[in-house]
Amino acid sequence: MAAVDDLHRTADERLRADGQRYTANRRALVDVLATSGCPVTMTEVLAAAEGLALSSAYRNLAVLEDAGVVHRVVTTDDTARYELAEDLTGHHHHLVCTTCGVVADIDVPEALEHHIDELARSAAAATSWSVDHHRLDLLGTCPTCRSAQRS
Q1: 26-80 tens-digit pLDDT
Q2: Is 148 helix (H, G, I), strand (E, B) or coil?
Q3: Rounded to whole angstroms, how far apart are CA atoms 81 and 79?
Q4: How many helices (H) and strands (E) does the chain have?
Q5: What are the φ and ψ backbone dihedral angles of 76, each rounded to 5 degrees?
Q6: CA-CA 20 to 30 A from 119: which of 8, 46, 83, 112?
């Protein structure tokens, strides 16, 4: 329970710093994203957050995104999916189905993460960019779509 309380406290602090309030609808959205286990579509958000209107959900997710509480993941099907910001949940990467757009969270082995960090530092040095963090999306076909393609 303490982790959930910390999550809500952090969301409240970020919203206040952005001049916003942590309303009941925003708290409900954070709860949905905290329990989803992977990035979710608006349809999935609305199914989990009973009584929340579509326009309110979009508006509140945009406010949460601006405050750094929520991250929007856009996939190959142009359907936005939402998850809590990585610094709230832990660093991870995504598997993205190029057929249906479903997204699954994955963790990579520490050795691979180290190599990705080295690649980021090398790319930054070669281009004079400043790299703050990285994301890795692996694109492919999910088991459901692969099964449907075989049929």
Answers
A1: 999 999 999 998 999 999 999 999 899 999 999 999 999 999 999 999 887 778 9
A2: helix
A3: 6
A4: 7, 6
A5: -65, -20
A6: 83
Greatest alpha-carbon pair distance for the chain in Å reads 53
For the chain, the C-alpha Rg in angstroms (whole number) is 17
CA distance 70 to 84: 4
Tokens of 71: 């991250």
Token pair, residue 127, equals 């281009």
Placement of tokens 């997710």 in the chain: 61
Q: Cα–Cα distances in Å, from 115 out to 11, 111, 119?
A: 32, 6, 6
User: Which domains does the chain carry?
Assistant: 1-90 (1.10.10.10), 92-151 (3.30.1490.190)
| β-pair type (80-84, 40-41) | antiparallel
Structure tokens, 105: 């969270």
